[in-house]
User: Fold ATP synthase archaeal, H subunit from Blautia hansenii DSM 20583.
Amino acid sequence: MTKCIIHSNIKLCEGGDTVVEKTIKEIRETEQKADDIIAEAKSQSEKLLENAKKEAENLESGMIEQAQEAAKKACRAAQDAGKKTLEEALKDVGKEIAEIKETAKSREKEAVDAIIESLV
Assistant:
């Protein structure tokens, strides 16, 4: 024979407190498992975020190195082009100087003759 107490359509019987305790225990265990899962997820998300930051830093430094190397190459190319242009200009100037000297030599006799003629 069981004694039951009726309260808002819920029947609590003798020995029912064990069932309630067991249910409460299961709820607490489930809540604890949920808390553990949340804590693990938070830990994993922090690790993923940290890894993403490190990867971003590595990518950034790699991109900076590439940009610096490209700038160095461009600078070297500009210097080489400048040297080549300067060398060509110096060659042209050298040719002009040689032509002027040649012209001066060819006119030197004329100048000497003109000076002698004006003195006579």
User: Anything to note?
Assistant: The helical segments are 16-119. Confidence is low (pLDDT under 50) at residues 1-9. The chain has one domain: 4-119.
